Fold:
Amino acid sequence: MSTTAKPILFLLRAGFPESKHGTGGLYCPECATIAGLLYYYPKLVEALDVRLVDVPRPRPEVVAMVGEENQSCPVLVLPQGDLPAGVPVANGRAFVSGPEPIVNFLADRYGTARSH
Structure:
């Protein structure tokens, strides 16, 4: 893995509008799970490049890295050249998608706890 490039963690920005739910906005519970892990383990905030993206699709920054079919959040995009076995690759970039796979990947790589 490159010593300069950090994995990029894309999370949806909280408080997005949803007309059928009235005022106050919504948040993504899957992204909130990962945000909670960042709270528990501040070392992850230092180790990752955390980027908040807006909810509407397409999400250009995510699409540019891992393609339109992989723009769901949360998604962790690994630096170029970091290609662990068993991790999907799109546009030459390995990525981990979804809260449980991300939590498990971070536990393996950074020694954080796993979900109970």
Q: What stands out?
A: The CA atoms of residues 10 and 51 lie 5 Å apart. Residues 29-40 form the longest helix (12 residues).
